[in-house]
C-alpha cells in the first residue's frame, strides 16, 4: 500500500514551475516563507525529499532558499565560488539524483560574479591569482575564452561571461556524470542553467537539457 503521507514526486517541468513561482513572489516582495515552522521541522526528522537540487555560487547575495521563496526540506543546495564543479560537488549532485530522486538540477550563476571577474582579469593581464583561487580561475577560463571568441575586444562583459559559464557548467555536469546523464536521458531529471540578477532579483533561464 502506498504511503499517503509520502511527498508527491514532481516532474522536471513542475519543479521548475515551482521555483519560478517562488522567484516571482520574491521579486514582487510577496514571499510566503513556506515550510519554515516547527511542524515542518519535525516532519523532516525521519528523512528528506527535496524537489530540486541547486548548484550555485557561494556569493552571500545568492541564497537560493530566499530568492526562490523556499523552506526546510525543499531543495538540496550545493555551493562553490563561481559554481565551479569538482569531485565533491559532482558527487553531492549525483547523490541528489540517485538517492533523493530530484527531478531537477539548477546551475545558478549571477551578475557581477567575483570569481568570473577574477578570471576575466587573468585572461586580460596574464597574471594568475595566488593560492587555490587559481584553481577556480583555471576552471572558469574556458567559459571566458568561449564568450570572447569572435567578439570585438571589450564588447564582452563579466555578465556575458557568467551566462556562458552557467551554460557550460550545466552542460559539463551532464557530460561528466554517468548517473546524471542517464537520469536526463530517461526523462527523470532535467538540468537547467539559470542567471540571477542581483538588482531586481529575477532568475532567468539561460539553458536547458530539455525544452523547458
Automatic annotation (TrEMBL):
EC number: 4.2.1.1
SMART domains linked to this entry: Pro_CA
UniProt keyword Transcription present: no
Cofactor(s) required, per the database record: Zn(2+)
Cofactor note: Binds 1 zinc ion per subunit.
GO BP annotations listed: carbon utilization
Pfam families to which the protein is assigned, alphabetical: Pro_CA
The keyword Transferase appears for this protein: no
Organism domain of life: Bacteria
General function of this protein: Catalyzes the reversible hydration of carbon dioxide to form bicarbonate.
Family: Belongs to the beta-class carbonic anhydrase family.
Name of the molecule in the record: Carbonic anhydrase
Source lineage: Bacteria, Bacillati, Actinomycetota, Actinomycetes, Micrococcales
Amino acid at each position: 500500500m502506498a504511503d499517503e503521507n509520502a511527498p508527491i514526486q514532481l516532474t522536471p517541468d513542475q519543479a521548475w514551475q515551482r521555483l519560478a513561482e517562488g522567484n516571482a513572489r520574491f521579486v514582487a516582495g510577496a514571499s510566503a516563507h513556506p515550510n519554515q515552522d516547527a511542524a515542518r521541522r519535525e516532519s523532516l526528522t525521519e528523512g528528506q525529499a527535496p524537489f530540486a537540487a541547486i548548484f550555485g555560487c557561494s556569493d552571500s547575495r545568492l541564497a537560493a532558499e530566499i530568492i526562490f521563496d523556499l523552506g526546510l526540506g525543499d531543495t538540496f543546495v550545493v555551493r562553490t565560488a563561481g559554481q565551479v564543479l569538482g569531485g565533491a560537488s559532482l558527487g553531492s549532485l549525483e547523490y541528489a539524483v540517485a538517492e533523493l530522486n530530484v527531478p531537477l538540477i539548477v546551475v545558478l550563476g549571477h551578475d557581477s560574479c567575483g570569481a568570473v571577474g577574477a578570471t576575466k582579469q587573468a585572461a586580460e593581464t596574464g597574471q594568475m591569482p595566488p593560492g587555490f583561487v587559481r584553481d577556480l580561475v583555471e576552471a572558469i577560463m574556458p567559459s571566458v575564452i568561449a564568450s570572447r571568441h569572435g567578439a570585438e575586444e571589450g564588447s564582452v562583459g563579466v555578465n556575458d561571461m557568467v551566462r556562458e559559464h552557467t551554460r557550460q557548467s550545466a552542460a559539463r555536469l551532464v557530460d561528466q556524470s554517468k548517473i546524471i546523464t542517464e537520469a536526463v536521458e530517461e526523462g527523470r531529471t532535467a538540468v537547467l542553467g539559470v542567471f540571477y540578477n542581483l538588482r531586481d532579483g529575477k532568475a532567468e533561464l539561460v539553458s536547458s537539457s530539455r525544452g523547458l
